[in-house]
Amino acid sequence: MIEAQVHQQLRALLREWGEPSWPHHLTLARLVARALRLGRSALLQVGGLSAYQGEYRLSYLIALMMWPGPAVVVAPEPTAQRLLMVDLPRLQEKLRLHKPVHRGDRWPSGDFNGLLITTPGAWLSDRLSYGSQFPEGIPTLIDDADNLEQWVQEQLTANLSSLDWNHLALAYPNHERLIQDTHVALTHAAFQRSANPYRRYLLDEQACQQLQRLHQVLTASRTPQSEGPMPPQWARFWQQFNPPDHLLWFAVDRDRGQMTLHCAPVDLAPALTPVWARQPVVLLGAALDPEPAADNFRQRLGLGELTCLQFTPNRQNDAIQLYLPTHLPLPNTPQFQGVLHQEIRRLLSRDVEADARAEVAESLANRPGFTVILLDDLPLKGQLGAALAGEFGSRVQVEQTAVGSNGILVSGWTFWRQHQALLPPPDLLIVATLPLPSLENPMVAGRVAFHKRRRQDWFRLYLFPTAVTELQRAIAPSRQHQGTVALLDTRVHYRSYGAQILEALSPAACTRSLPSDWGTRR
Description:
Shape: globular
Oligomer: single chain
Number of helices: 22
């Protein structure tokens, strides 16, 4: 069987290349080979460190290259580049596999029996629109599936700019005045909203009613003689327009005086369920769900019964040093910001007892190592960055990749996730607050309201799994060298979900107080 052949070849390679740092290569290779042979879908969670290092890709590539039939790999650009430039040449050189490999946004030809590497955008656009650029039944592996929900959301979001309003007016000249009045009214309403850091605003009931009235008038007036076809962007928008079950929001650029209108479904399962029936799929990600069976993730993505496996980390090699202080106030208290700043200064200092400004600054100047401070509170992030820069100078950067080897990066979670591959693994990773999506973000508030209307546990279904997944991916670089992670959000001690957060951070050597030799041993 293909599983035995893949196992034998991979084991020989691993022996030749030396002891691998990831212990699950053979298991992953057999599972992918089995999925290919049986045409049965699978969901595999490889862990944060393995995903960060990318070593697991060798296992699925050898299965795909030895599989006698055609296959598709869906991967974002950085991953595709690594596959094509590093992993595949390395594998072909050793095994002399001659299976053709193409890269493109459609199936090369009807008789193609090789491996196609394509982008998430190309594949999802075809599958969600019932296109035919990719044949039915071709086994498909989706890598970096942690971002799958975001990719699908982008594909299903309808966007309207000022130019689209002009196109609508040209298509319906008899209703040009109504179209212009509606556009002006919505733009005025958007700019009347109080500024927020996210630059996004959910549409209120009045705005939704104005759009509904416009749609009704245009639909009622359409005849082949009087009006042309609905412009494509507007046809897509009206197809998605279904308040309150869909998110509708303005994005406002106050500097340019521009407003764009967006509409997207909250529940992705109805659109995705037919997609999974069109071919067997293997989903590979770092941390798709806190639970091995991934029930929550599967429900959100409309996935049915499939093979699920969550690979356990190496408890000896992947452990981090985890500092969990209990003396800090909760993040939602007025005292938190001041105490947080003091604690961060203490962590950055060689001498735990050094409180004088000059002593702290001098200690940091001599301290080796790269430090990352993670928090998503936008005002606090800027204030903390400014305060630290005032003390420690240009070593402090806020969401910049040009950071020195002994620098301090103050970053939001999204920036760190997108750029951690370009930066060195941090010697010290400070998690100021847990990455629970903020209800102050209109997009988060809209999604929470969706769950509340259905009387669903919005925290367990949305906020909590999002935070756990983000946290596991963020600390992955620290596991590479058993670095130190300081979790300063004391909700892990005082909230019911704290134990599950700590479980997600294992393996870790935990301490609730800094040792006396903290600075000197780092």
